[in-house]
Amino acid sequence: MSAFLLRALSLSLSLSLSLSLSLSVLCRCVCVWLCSRDTSVCVCVCVTSGDYCLTAGRDRLIKLWNPHTQLLIKTYKGHSLEVNSAEASRDNSRFVSGSSDKAVMMWDVATGQCIRKIRAHSGPVNDVRLNEDATIIVSASYDSTVKCWDLRSAQHEPVQTLPEATDSVPGLDLSGHEILTGSVDGVIRNYDMRMGKLRADTVGDPVTCVRFSHDNNCILAASLDGYVRLFDKDNGSLLGSYTGHVNSEFKVDCGLSYNDAIVAAGSEDGHLHLWDLVNGKELFKHQFHRNVICALSFHPKTHMHLNLASPQMCLATASIDGTVCIIKSPADVMKTLAKTESDE
Ligand SMILES: *[C@@H]1O[C@H](CO)[C@@H](O)[C@H](O)[C@H]1NC(C)=O
Protein backbone atom coordinates (compact mmCIF):
# COMPACT_ATOMS: atom_id res chain seq x y z
CA MET A 1 0.00 0.00 0.00
CA SER A 2 1.41 3.40 -0.92
CA ALA A 3 2.18 5.87 1.82
CA PHE A 4 -0.35 8.23 0.35
CA LEU A 5 -3.13 5.67 0.33
CA LEU A 6 -2.23 4.65 3.86
CA ARG A 7 -2.42 8.23 5.00
CA ALA A 8 -5.72 8.80 3.21
CA LEU A 9 -7.14 5.64 4.73
CA SER A 10 -5.95 6.49 8.20
CA LEU A 11 -7.46 9.94 7.82
CA SER A 12 -10.85 8.67 6.78
CA LEU A 13 -10.68 6.13 9.53
CA SER A 14 -9.87 8.66 12.21
CA LEU A 15 -12.67 10.80 10.87
CA SER A 16 -15.17 8.02 11.07
CA LEU A 17 -13.93 7.13 14.53
CA SER A 18 -14.50 10.50 16.01
CA LEU A 19 -16.53 12.72 13.77
CA SER A 20 -17.32 15.18 16.47
CA LEU A 21 -13.67 15.81 17.24
CA SER A 22 -11.49 18.43 15.85
CA LEU A 23 -9.14 16.09 14.04
CA SER A 24 -6.25 18.47 13.56
CA VAL A 25 -6.02 19.04 17.29
CA LEU A 26 -6.51 15.43 18.27
CA CYS A 27 -3.86 14.29 15.78
CA ARG A 28 -1.20 15.78 17.98
CA CYS A 29 -1.97 13.43 20.85
CA VAL A 30 -3.33 10.38 19.06
CA CYS A 31 -2.59 8.75 15.76
CA VAL A 32 -4.62 5.93 14.34
CA TRP A 33 -3.75 4.03 11.22
CA LEU A 34 -4.95 1.06 9.30
CA CYS A 35 -2.38 -1.71 9.46
CA SER A 36 -4.11 -4.33 7.54
CA ARG A 37 -7.12 -3.99 5.30
CA ASP A 38 -9.98 -6.42 6.06
CA THR A 39 -8.03 -8.26 8.73
CA SER A 40 -7.70 -7.96 12.44
CA VAL A 41 -4.53 -6.96 14.26
CA CYS A 42 -3.83 -9.27 17.19
CA VAL A 43 -0.44 -7.93 18.13
CA CYS A 44 1.02 -4.55 18.71
CA VAL A 45 4.28 -4.29 20.55
CA CYS A 46 6.23 -1.18 21.29
CA VAL A 47 9.73 -2.34 20.53
CA THR A 48 12.09 -1.78 23.44
CA SER A 49 13.43 1.59 22.34
CA GLY A 50 9.86 2.79 21.91
CA ASP A 51 10.66 4.19 18.48
CA TYR A 52 9.28 1.23 16.62
CA CYS A 53 6.13 -0.81 16.81
CA LEU A 54 5.46 -4.38 15.69
CA THR A 55 2.01 -5.42 14.55
CA ALA A 56 0.62 -8.71 13.35
CA GLY A 57 -2.69 -10.34 12.83
CA ARG A 58 -4.94 -12.42 10.69
CA ASP A 59 -3.11 -11.61 7.46
CA ARG A 60 -0.23 -13.83 8.77
CA LEU A 61 2.24 -10.99 8.35
CA ILE A 62 4.31 -9.26 10.99
CA LYS A 63 5.01 -5.61 10.27
CA LEU A 64 7.53 -3.18 11.69
CA TRP A 65 6.37 0.45 11.77
CA ASN A 66 7.66 3.82 12.65
CA PRO A 67 4.63 4.87 14.70
CA HIS A 68 5.53 8.56 14.51
CA THR A 69 5.39 8.70 10.70
CA GLN A 70 3.17 5.62 10.25
CA LEU A 71 5.73 4.38 7.77
CA LEU A 72 5.92 0.63 7.17
CA ILE A 73 9.58 -0.31 7.56
CA LYS A 74 9.58 -4.06 7.02
CA THR A 75 7.25 -7.03 6.56
CA TYR A 76 8.05 -10.50 7.89
CA LYS A 77 6.45 -13.43 6.03
CA GLY A 78 6.53 -17.06 7.09
CA HIS A 79 3.58 -18.04 9.26
CA SER A 80 0.79 -19.91 7.49
CA LEU A 81 -2.03 -18.81 9.82
CA GLU A 82 -2.75 -15.74 11.95
CA VAL A 83 -0.03 -14.43 14.24
CA ASN A 84 -1.19 -14.17 17.84
CA SER A 85 1.84 -12.87 19.69
CA ALA A 86 5.30 -11.34 19.27
CA GLU A 87 8.05 -10.01 21.47
CA ALA A 88 11.33 -8.29 20.62
CA SER A 89 14.68 -8.95 22.29
CA ARG A 90 16.10 -6.22 24.54
CA ASP A 91 18.64 -5.15 21.91
CA ASN A 92 15.91 -5.01 19.22
CA SER A 93 17.96 -7.22 16.88
CA ARG A 94 15.52 -10.14 16.99
CA PHE A 95 11.94 -10.95 17.78
CA VAL A 96 9.89 -14.06 18.40
CA SER A 97 6.38 -14.75 17.09
CA GLY A 98 3.69 -17.33 17.79
CA SER A 99 0.90 -18.32 15.44
CA SER A 100 -2.21 -20.42 15.06
CA ASP A 101 -0.11 -22.54 12.66
CA LYS A 102 1.30 -24.07 15.94
CA ALA A 103 4.79 -22.73 15.21
CA VAL A 104 7.07 -20.33 17.03
CA MET A 105 9.49 -18.37 14.85
CA MET A 106 12.57 -16.32 15.66
CA TRP A 107 13.35 -13.45 13.27
CA ASP A 108 16.26 -11.21 12.47
CA VAL A 109 14.84 -7.68 12.51
CA ALA A 110 17.26 -6.15 10.00
CA THR A 111 17.39 -8.88 7.35
CA GLY A 112 13.79 -10.02 7.75
CA GLN A 113 14.96 -13.65 7.75
CA CYS A 114 13.53 -16.37 9.97
CA ILE A 115 16.45 -17.63 12.09
CA ARG A 116 14.64 -20.50 13.76
CA LYS A 117 11.29 -22.19 13.30
CA ILE A 118 10.01 -24.48 16.04
CA ARG A 119 7.02 -26.74 15.60
CA ALA A 120 6.15 -25.98 19.15
CA HIS A 121 2.63 -27.20 19.94
CA SER A 122 -0.23 -29.44 18.91
CA GLY A 123 -2.56 -26.42 18.89
CA PRO A 124 -2.43 -22.68 18.13
CA VAL A 125 0.26 -20.69 19.96
CA ASN A 126 -1.54 -18.02 21.99
CA ASP A 127 1.37 -16.14 23.48
CA VAL A 128 5.19 -16.07 23.37
CA ARG A 129 7.88 -14.43 25.49
CA LEU A 130 11.66 -14.10 25.41
CA ASN A 131 13.91 -14.12 28.46
CA GLU A 132 16.22 -11.19 29.15
CA ASP A 133 19.18 -12.33 27.05
CA ALA A 134 16.96 -13.82 24.31
CA THR A 135 18.23 -17.38 24.82
CA ILE A 136 14.96 -18.93 26.02
CA ILE A 137 11.54 -18.74 24.35
CA VAL A 138 8.44 -19.53 26.40
CA SER A 139 5.27 -20.39 24.49
CA ALA A 140 1.68 -20.86 25.70
CA SER A 141 -0.82 -22.78 23.65
CA TYR A 142 -4.40 -23.72 23.05
CA ASP A 143 -3.19 -27.30 23.64
CA SER A 144 -3.13 -26.31 27.38
CA THR A 145 0.65 -26.57 27.75
CA VAL A 146 3.41 -24.02 28.24
CA LYS A 147 6.85 -24.91 26.83
CA CYS A 148 10.35 -23.50 27.20
CA TRP A 149 12.80 -23.64 24.29
CA ASP A 150 16.54 -23.15 24.61
CA LEU A 151 17.82 -21.37 21.50
CA ARG A 152 21.42 -22.34 22.28
CA SER A 153 20.55 -26.01 21.89
CA ALA A 154 20.20 -27.71 18.51
CA GLN A 155 17.59 -30.09 19.98
CA HIS A 156 14.03 -30.01 18.71
CA GLU A 157 12.56 -30.82 22.11
CA PRO A 158 11.52 -28.25 24.71
CA VAL A 159 13.81 -27.96 27.74
CA GLN A 160 10.72 -27.81 29.93
CA THR A 161 6.99 -28.49 29.54
CA LEU A 162 4.46 -27.14 32.05
CA PRO A 163 1.40 -29.40 31.78
CA GLU A 164 -0.65 -28.20 34.80
CA ALA A 165 -3.35 -26.19 32.99
CA THR A 166 -6.45 -28.18 32.08
CA ASP A 167 -7.56 -25.86 29.26
CA SER A 168 -6.14 -23.37 26.75
CA VAL A 169 -3.49 -20.95 28.07
CA PRO A 170 -4.11 -17.49 26.54
CA GLY A 171 -2.06 -15.44 29.01
CA LEU A 172 1.68 -15.53 29.66
CA ASP A 173 4.30 -13.33 31.26
CA LEU A 174 7.94 -13.71 32.21
CA SER A 175 10.04 -12.05 34.89
CA GLY A 176 13.53 -13.32 35.66
CA HIS A 177 13.15 -17.00 36.54
CA GLU A 178 9.36 -16.81 37.02
CA ILE A 179 6.73 -17.82 34.47
CA LEU A 180 3.18 -16.56 34.95
CA THR A 181 0.24 -18.12 33.10
CA GLY A 182 -3.48 -17.43 32.85
CA SER A 183 -5.70 -20.23 31.67
CA VAL A 184 -9.28 -20.80 30.50
CA ASP A 185 -9.55 -23.25 33.45
CA GLY A 186 -9.80 -20.11 35.61
CA VAL A 187 -6.41 -20.49 37.33
CA ILE A 188 -3.41 -18.16 37.51
CA ARG A 189 -0.17 -20.15 37.86
CA ASN A 190 3.15 -18.70 38.89
CA TYR A 191 6.10 -21.04 38.29
CA ASP A 192 9.35 -20.27 40.05
CA MET A 193 11.73 -22.16 37.77
CA ARG A 194 14.76 -21.74 40.04
CA MET A 195 13.04 -22.98 43.19
CA GLY A 196 10.88 -25.52 41.33
CA LYS A 197 7.78 -24.10 42.99
CA LEU A 198 4.27 -23.51 41.65
CA ARG A 199 1.74 -21.13 43.17
CA ALA A 200 -1.79 -21.54 41.78
CA ASP A 201 -4.65 -19.13 42.49
CA THR A 202 -8.18 -19.77 41.29
CA VAL A 203 -10.14 -16.85 39.85
CA GLY A 204 -12.96 -19.03 38.55
CA ASP A 205 -13.68 -17.38 35.21
CA PRO A 206 -11.27 -17.89 32.29
CA VAL A 207 -8.10 -15.82 32.73
CA THR A 208 -6.99 -14.34 29.41
CA CYS A 209 -4.19 -11.95 30.28
CA VAL A 210 -1.59 -11.93 33.08
CA ARG A 211 1.18 -9.44 33.90
CA PHE A 212 3.85 -9.12 36.58
CA SER A 213 4.04 -5.62 38.01
CA HIS A 214 7.33 -3.87 37.22
CA ASP A 215 8.32 -3.93 40.91
CA ASN A 216 7.66 -7.72 40.77
CA ASN A 217 5.47 -7.68 43.91
CA CYS A 218 2.07 -8.05 42.24
CA ILE A 219 0.20 -9.89 39.52
CA LEU A 220 -2.39 -8.30 37.25
CA ALA A 221 -4.97 -10.59 35.62
CA ALA A 222 -7.90 -10.02 33.27
CA SER A 223 -10.74 -12.52 33.25
CA LEU A 224 -13.93 -13.05 31.29
CA ASP A 225 -16.15 -11.89 34.16
CA GLY A 226 -15.27 -8.34 33.07
CA TYR A 227 -12.74 -7.63 35.83
CA VAL A 228 -9.05 -6.90 35.94
CA ARG A 229 -7.61 -7.83 39.35
CA LEU A 230 -4.41 -7.14 41.19
CA PHE A 231 -3.03 -9.83 43.50
CA ASP A 232 -0.16 -9.98 45.95
CA LYS A 233 2.38 -12.21 44.20
CA ASP A 234 3.50 -14.10 47.30
CA ASN A 235 0.25 -14.87 49.10
CA GLY A 236 -2.38 -14.33 46.40
CA SER A 237 -4.43 -11.82 48.39
CA LEU A 238 -6.60 -9.49 46.32
CA LEU A 239 -5.22 -5.94 46.33
CA GLY A 240 -7.49 -4.24 43.81
CA SER A 241 -10.11 -4.74 41.14
CA TYR A 242 -10.87 -2.66 38.07
CA THR A 243 -13.99 -2.78 35.94
CA GLY A 244 -16.27 -0.78 33.66
CA HIS A 245 -14.95 -2.27 30.44
CA VAL A 246 -16.62 -5.08 28.47
CA ASN A 247 -14.83 -8.43 28.60
CA SER A 248 -16.92 -11.58 28.38
CA GLU A 249 -15.91 -13.33 25.18
CA PHE A 250 -12.55 -12.26 23.73
CA LYS A 251 -9.02 -11.90 24.95
CA VAL A 252 -8.58 -8.20 25.62
CA ASP A 253 -5.16 -7.11 26.73
CA CYS A 254 -4.30 -5.53 30.07
CA GLY A 255 -1.16 -3.84 31.34
CA LEU A 256 0.60 -1.66 33.87
CA SER A 257 2.40 1.60 33.19
CA TYR A 258 6.17 1.68 33.57
CA ASN A 259 5.87 3.11 37.11
CA ASP A 260 3.04 0.69 38.10
CA ALA A 261 0.73 3.65 38.84
CA ILE A 262 -1.82 3.02 36.10
CA VAL A 263 -3.76 -0.10 35.13
CA ALA A 264 -4.94 -0.30 31.52
CA ALA A 265 -7.32 -2.64 29.72
CA GLY A 266 -8.96 -2.81 26.34
CA SER A 267 -12.66 -3.35 25.98
CA GLU A 268 -14.66 -5.45 23.55
CA ASP A 269 -16.49 -2.26 22.45
CA GLY A 270 -13.25 -0.55 21.36
CA HIS A 271 -12.74 1.61 24.44
CA LEU A 272 -9.45 1.97 26.24
CA HIS A 273 -9.82 2.19 30.05
CA LEU A 274 -7.22 3.48 32.50
CA TRP A 275 -7.49 3.19 36.29
CA ASP A 276 -5.54 4.39 39.28
CA LEU A 277 -3.81 1.25 40.60
CA VAL A 278 -4.15 2.20 44.27
CA ASN A 279 -7.75 3.36 44.61
CA GLY A 280 -9.25 1.63 41.54
CA LYS A 281 -10.79 4.86 40.24
CA GLU A 282 -11.30 5.14 36.49
CA LEU A 283 -9.00 7.87 35.18
CA PHE A 284 -9.68 7.72 31.49
CA LYS A 285 -11.97 6.06 29.00
CA HIS A 286 -12.19 6.66 25.27
CA GLN A 287 -13.28 4.73 22.21
CA PHE A 288 -10.28 4.61 19.90
CA HIS A 289 -11.43 1.58 17.90
CA ARG A 290 -14.66 0.26 16.44
CA ASN A 291 -14.18 -3.27 17.70
CA VAL A 292 -12.40 -5.41 20.31
CA ILE A 293 -9.02 -4.10 21.50
CA CYS A 294 -6.95 -7.27 21.45
CA ALA A 295 -3.51 -5.84 22.13
CA LEU A 296 -2.15 -3.10 24.31
CA SER A 297 1.42 -2.07 24.90
CA PHE A 298 2.87 0.60 27.14
CA HIS A 299 5.93 2.46 26.06
CA PRO A 300 8.75 0.51 27.70
CA LYS A 301 10.48 3.55 29.17
CA THR A 302 8.21 6.54 29.31
CA HIS A 303 6.30 7.18 32.50
CA MET A 304 2.69 7.93 31.88
CA HIS A 305 1.74 11.14 33.59
CA LEU A 306 -1.93 11.87 33.30
CA ASN A 307 -1.44 15.42 34.47
CA LEU A 308 1.49 16.27 32.27
CA ALA A 309 1.40 16.72 28.55
CA SER A 310 4.02 14.25 27.42
CA PRO A 311 4.96 14.61 23.77
CA GLN A 312 6.17 11.01 23.60
CA MET A 313 4.27 7.96 22.61
CA CYS A 314 3.13 6.27 25.80
CA LEU A 315 0.64 3.59 24.86
CA ALA A 316 -0.30 1.63 21.75
CA THR A 317 -3.50 -0.33 21.16
CA ALA A 318 -4.54 -2.66 18.34
CA SER A 319 -7.95 -3.91 17.37
CA ILE A 320 -9.85 -6.54 15.46
CA ASP A 321 -10.98 -3.63 13.23
CA GLY A 322 -7.47 -3.62 11.70
CA THR A 323 -6.27 -0.37 13.22
CA VAL A 324 -3.48 0.55 15.57
CA CYS A 325 -3.65 3.62 17.75
CA ILE A 326 -0.75 5.41 19.41
CA ILE A 327 -1.81 7.53 22.36
CA LYS A 328 0.82 10.09 23.15
CA SER A 329 -0.82 11.63 26.16
CA PRO A 330 -4.22 10.77 27.66
CA ALA A 331 -4.19 14.17 29.39
CA ASP A 332 -4.04 15.85 25.99
CA VAL A 333 -6.81 13.63 24.68
CA MET A 334 -9.00 14.62 27.63
CA LYS A 335 -8.28 18.31 27.14
CA THR A 336 -9.08 18.09 23.44
CA LEU A 337 -12.32 16.26 24.14
CA ALA A 338 -13.35 18.84 26.72
CA LYS A 339 -12.49 21.68 24.36
CA THR A 340 -14.41 20.15 21.46
CA GLU A 341 -17.47 19.64 23.62
CA SER A 342 -17.46 23.21 24.93
CA ASP A 343 -17.07 24.51 21.33
CA GLU A 344 -20.25 22.78 20.24
C1 LIG B 1 -0.16 -10.88 51.99
O1 LIG B 1 1.05 -10.14 51.96
C2 LIG B 1 0.89 -8.76 52.13
C3 LIG B 1 2.24 -8.09 51.92
O2 LIG B 1 3.27 -8.76 52.55
C4 LIG B 1 0.30 -8.48 53.51
O3 LIG B 1 0.12 -7.09 53.69
C5 LIG B 1 -1.04 -9.19 53.62
O4 LIG B 1 -1.57 -9.04 54.91
C6 LIG B 1 -0.88 -10.68 53.30
N1 LIG B 1 -2.20 -11.28 53.25
C7 LIG B 1 -2.48 -12.51 53.72
C8 LIG B 1 -3.89 -12.99 53.57
O5 LIG B 1 -1.63 -13.18 54.26
UniProtKB/TrEMBL annotation:
The primary site where this protein sits is: cytoplasm
Name the GO cellular-component terms: catalytic step 2 spliceosome; cytoplasm
User: Where on the tree of life does the source sit, at the highest rank?
Assistant: Eukaryota
InterPro entries assigned: WD40/YVTN_repeat-like_dom_sf, WD40_PAC1, WD40_repeat_dom_sf, WD40_rpt, WD_repeat_MORG1
Task: Look up keyword Zinc-finger and say if it applies.
Answer: no
The ranges of the WD repeats are 76-117, 118-159, 259-285
Q: Which Gene3D superfamilies match?
A: YVTN repeat-like/Quinoprotein amine dehydrogenase
Biological processes annotated in GO:
mRNA splicing, via spliceosome
The cross-references to SUPFAM superfamilies, in alphabetical order and at most eight, read: WD40 repeat-like
Annotated signal sequence is: 1-27
What UniProt keywords are attached to this protein's entry?
Cytoplasm, Repeat, Signal, WD repeat
Q: Which family does it belong to?
A: Belongs to the WD repeat MORG1 family.
Q: What PANTHER family has UniProt attached to this entry?
A: WD REPEAT DOMAIN-CONTAINING PROTEIN 83, WD40 REPEAT PROTEIN
Task: Tell me what this protein is called.
Answer: Anaphase-promoting complex subunit 4 WD40 domain-containing protein
**Which source organism?**
Monosiga brevicollis (Choanoflagellate)
